[in-house]
Amino acid sequence: MKSLAAGQGEDFLAMREAFRVGDAARVAFYAKHLQNHVLAPYAEYYQLRLYLETIDIGTIREFLARRQESLVADKLRGDWLRILGRKQQWALFAEEYPKLSNKDEGLICYSLQQRLAAGDRETPNEARLLWFTERDMADSCTPVFNILVTTGRISTEDIWSRIRLALEAGNASVALHVSRYLPANQALNAQKLKEAAKDPQRYLEKYQNDFRSRHDREIAMFALSQLLRSGINQAYARWYKIRKQFSEYDQSYFMSSLAYRAALKQDSRALGWFLEAANSKQVYPLTEAKLTWKARIALREGKWDLVLQCIDSMSAAMQQADVWRYWKARALKTKGELAAANEILAPLSHEHSYYGQMAKEELGVMLSVPAANYQSSLDEIRTMQQVPGIQRALTLYQLNLRVEANREWVWTMRKFSDAQLLAAAEVAYRHGLYDRAINTAIQTVSQHNFNLRYLAPYRDQMREVLRYHELDEAFVYGLIRQESRFIADIKSSAGAMGLMQLMPATAKWVAEKLGMQNFHNHLVTDINTNLRLGVYYLKHVLTLFDNQPLLAAAAYNAGPGRAKQWRDDIRPLEGAIYAETIPFNETRDYVKVVLNNSIYYANNFGHPHKLTLTQRLGTVSPKQ
Predict the structure, then answer these.
(1) Any catalytic annotation for residue 483?
(2) Which end of the chain is more exposed for a tag (fewer CB within 10 A), N or C?
């Protein structure tokens, strides 16, 4: 498509800023310049949105009909529904809400309000499910909860359950707000809660003989959970002195919390504490997070029967996750139940994912991808470039409005067939939008293009850098794909920059090692400089960890100290188990994706049998 005229681009940006500050006159002025422009729907949206409280229904509906299926139409409908909900104009709300695609929490609660007002009998049961959360909810949810509490659909025990969820997550303000639903003499004491949050050790010492009431016991549990975050030994010692003041149900709860925190620290006592929590006469049910870590620590300890027991105790949805299907199959194999294991592994092996590849290798199958990638025709690509949503997204990318452009792109893709997705991915690739090309190509179900899924731009620059290091090109590309999706100028919220997402301190250290003169941080987003610095650092961490890609990937993401710390104290660990028991969610997912990426890149680069995923994961030696 033609590039955006400079004047039009400036007009759109000026209009966008005018909308942000609520200057309707300036919005209208710039909108006149963009009447026939590809971004004209945004100009219309900005104008309507500023007067949405007062304009007539016919004008709103005319825009929604004319711009139906567009992102801005859905956005305006959502804005309108928020106004209707706030004003309790339920007839109009009920008519428009089913037409909305992007439903956020606030709108869902307005819908629940509308249905409760209409006497829908199923609504209380649906609304009740929203109650059990540790976080604050949208303001529109409060009237819903008020009705449920008043009618007894949310019991006193339910109120205490949510208070405990909030306190366990450290959200004291949410717990205090929720406790207002209790009778005044049962509600949490705000001052004591503040003391417990500020200095939990001192609080537990001060009130150690005064946990007679439920609200005092809950605050004590909160103080203990805060203490567990800083040190499990300190919390356990304090618990031992006060535990007799608590019911067996609460004792089971604390022991499971202790076990969970110990598991995250890979403390060898974790499994015993989990078992102690389960042996109580009144067992407190494990949350999903605690149950998954009980399974992970059982994996780490080689307790396959317990792994199987944990997985069987998970919800149906959790059991269907690829991670737990894979480990269930592995547990069954240890029991000699090969037929049952293979029944799980066979369908899993058809998925193009980390666990899909692991399942293939368990079945003795090498990487399998289509012999020929689906290649979009020139007509398909030309047709895709004319799709209005694609044109709007490309224009927004030209204006460097990446967030808005991504939203437009994702919205446009939502109903695409495989062939359309791959044509769109090809369009993105041709415009240098490598992240969009990858993220679009991976959505296909039956027709695939693995060259688009695993793009390899900048290969000439990469080969030049790799000449000086004995590094596997597939591994480096697998890492970059996960780090930046090949966005050269990307900067993370933590400050990491460029293709290989280097932190300023790391970039400076490597630059000094390489003897780079006049190095400045702004150079890190230069493609050649970033590759030079990043590959050197990756080689450094690989050398630190005896050329083990798994540990190098963990070190690259979380630091070498942590990668060393996560090894077992005395035993070698299967690499897949080391990866599965990394306590940081981000790093745990990261290492799996990076190593799985490497398999596909090796295939694309013509080295499909160089190393299996299991070989890349390897065996992790103990700390000693």
Answers:
(1) yes
(2) C
